[in-house]
Amino acid sequence: MSIQEPNVQEAKRQRLFLLLCGIFLTNALIAEIIGGKIFSVEALLGIAPAQIGIGGQRFDFNMTAGVINWPIVFITSDIINEYFGRKGVKRISLLTACFIAYTFITILAATLLPPAQFWLELNKTDNQGNVFNINDAFTKIFNQGLGIMIGSIVAFLLGQLLDVYVFSWLRRRTGSRFIWLRATGSTMFSQLVDSFVVIGIAFYVFGNWDLKLVFSVGTINYLYKGVVAILLTPLLYVAHYFIDNYLGKEYAEELSHKAAHE
């Protein structure tokens, strides 16, 4: 082994951590910003409402737009945990929570700025020709920010902490085997909390939803996240393959072993 090899390995480890943190942070922020929109899966697919029976009630597939990005956050979190341990996940989770708060404070400040008259005039009708106040629409959408911000930060941190502890607990018992079990198991457990906490705080405590609607959307979001977590499991193996080749099999196993015994 040459004298420079450890430095090369350390440089690769740092670049990998920076890349994973960038992916994690970017997707978490995007998911929070677009999370105020609730969309219909049935309308997207052009099919009739599902009307699924759960607990004596019937629900359709209505979900927050944030579900587009959250699966990437789940996968990235598990990969960070695998190679950098609980401390690595905690660091990026706390940093992300701070950036989420900063983002929503900035957006809130933007909604308070007086609109330019020409901007209002240029956007005074919608696509159907109806009278439209773009500043009111902007404010209405983003002023959900306080509830979403508080709900998101609480749910995000709770979900991440649960995910990292369940992931680590399963890894200590399975060793390097059963990547699918610790990744999917930790996600299913943590998102049970996340799916209901964020919607409950954002739209029930700070919004105008009733508990029935919170349970409906929360349940559908959780079912979606569970299905996606299972479907995306092969990507974890693909990521492990490329990371192991990038770092070198021996060094990658050394990092994983060290992360598992933090």
Automatic annotation (TrEMBL):
<feature type="transmembrane region" description="Helical">
    <location>
        <begin position="222"/>
        <end position="243"/>
    </location>
</feature>
<feature type="transmembrane region" description="Helical">
    <location>
        <begin position="16"/>
        <end position="39"/>
    </location>
</feature>
<feature type="transmembrane region" description="Helical">
    <location>
        <begin position="146"/>
        <end position="167"/>
    </location>
</feature>
<keyword id="KW-0813">Transport</keyword>
<feature type="transmembrane region" description="Helical">
    <location>
        <begin position="59"/>
        <end position="80"/>
    </location>
</feature>
<dbReference type="Pfam" id="PF02592">
    <property type="entry name" value="Vut_1"/>
</dbReference>
<dbReference type="InterPro" id="IPR003744">
    <property type="entry name" value="YhhQ"/>
</dbReference>
<comment type="function">
    <text>Involved in the import of queuosine (Q) precursors, required for Q precursor salvage.</text>
</comment>
<comment type="similarity">
    <text>Belongs to the vitamin uptake transporter (VUT/ECF) (TC 2.A.88) family. Q precursor transporter subfamily.</text>
</comment>
<keyword id="KW-0472">Membrane</keyword>
<protein>
    <recommendedName>
        <fullName>Probable queuosine precursor transporter</fullName>
    </recommendedName>
</protein>
<feature type="transmembrane region" description="Helical">
    <location>
        <begin position="188"/>
        <end position="207"/>
    </location>
</feature>
<feature type="transmembrane region" description="Helical">
    <location>
        <begin position="92"/>
        <end position="113"/>
    </location>
</feature>
<keyword id="KW-0812">Transmembrane</keyword>
<keyword id="KW-1003">Cell membrane</keyword>
<keyword id="KW-1133">Transmembrane helix</keyword>
